[in-house]
Fold this sequence. Notes:
The protein is of the alpha/beta class. The chain is built from 18 helices and 17 strands.
Amino acid sequence: xxxxxxxxxxxxxxxxxxxxxxxxxxxxxxxxxxxxxxxxxxxxxxxxxxxxxxxxxxxxxxxxxxxxxxxxxxxxxxxxxxxxxxxxxxxxxxxxxxxxxxxxxxxxxxxxxxxxxxxxxxxxxxxxxxxxxxxxxxxxxxxxxxxxxxxxxxxxxxxxxxxxxxxxxxxxxxxxxxxxxxxxxxxxxxxxxxxxxxxxxxxxxxxxxxxxxxxxxxxxxxxxxxxxxxxxxxxxxxxxxxxxxxxxxxxxxxxxxxxxxxxxxxxxxxxxxxxxxxxxxxxxxxxxxxxxxxxxxxxxxxxxxxxxxxxxxxxxxxxxxxxxxxxxxxxxxxxxxxxxxxxxxxxxxxxxxxxxxxxxxxxxxxxxxxxxxxxxxxxxxxxxxxxxxxxxxxxxxxxxxxxxxxxxxxxx
Length: 412
């Protein structure tokens, strides 16, 4: 959906814009990308790379150099260390990296939430202590499935027992904010078995659950396998059944859906992701990391070696650096915010960001969707909100397709 026109802007110019925005007030999130894994999963379309003796030290130094350039004294509200597998890095090395990152950005004194993604096979007592020492207060553990045959089929390198052990280690170490990642709608999956799996996870009492439908993204090993007949994708009817079953069982255990794939106990929503979904500002550092500081959108070079070389040589490390026009900002705000099914998006906030009122700009389309019961408009907290109904959440792609601008445009 994102359309762009590449422009050339120096890193120093981007840094100046970021700092000017922050001086004007408003919160910001920091995302840090650590792309290395033991093995790349079949379904993964993230910017991740199986470790084949790459120079991790050089990569970490490059990320810290970018932080000095673009996030000095950023004082982010939230921090998210993603990948890849951040916990693939040696515990002490990861701790030292995070401590230096905090010295640069001052996140330990500003961030209310600091999350690290952890894979079960690389999370032990030593890693738990290292992360806590570095100021991490939230974990996202990639269980993905409770069935070893499924994990093996999709190239996960851990088993279910290791996932439960990682969770136990995290709790015993003192983590009181843990997300569990799960994937559903594998071919041949039994809905009753999936329900039983969710109940097992509920007994662990994580604060947050992320439940994703298995997706077939362009270029992934899974999609290529499907396209040559080696993998049978489930139909929409089955996927819808699983989607609704997931909501019903999670809700019954106190995990409310506050976004398409996110469930939380009361008050334990992921603050970092809420910044994304509310189109607030975030700065991304590392290979392939994206940033958004209205109206600027950037993305770093994806290849780690090219990224390192650009940073070391003080060259442009952006593959995209765009100034979005108002219609693009408007659409992006709706694309992100309509995923928040409890509250939706604030019309006033969108108008403030895009200089366009969505109810006026999309008057015809929104009118049709309201009349058909897919969208609704309501008042709350002295603001007007637009949100998807329960039926609308199931048809978000259709809704957004009708709202997509006729032609992408970025202004230089």
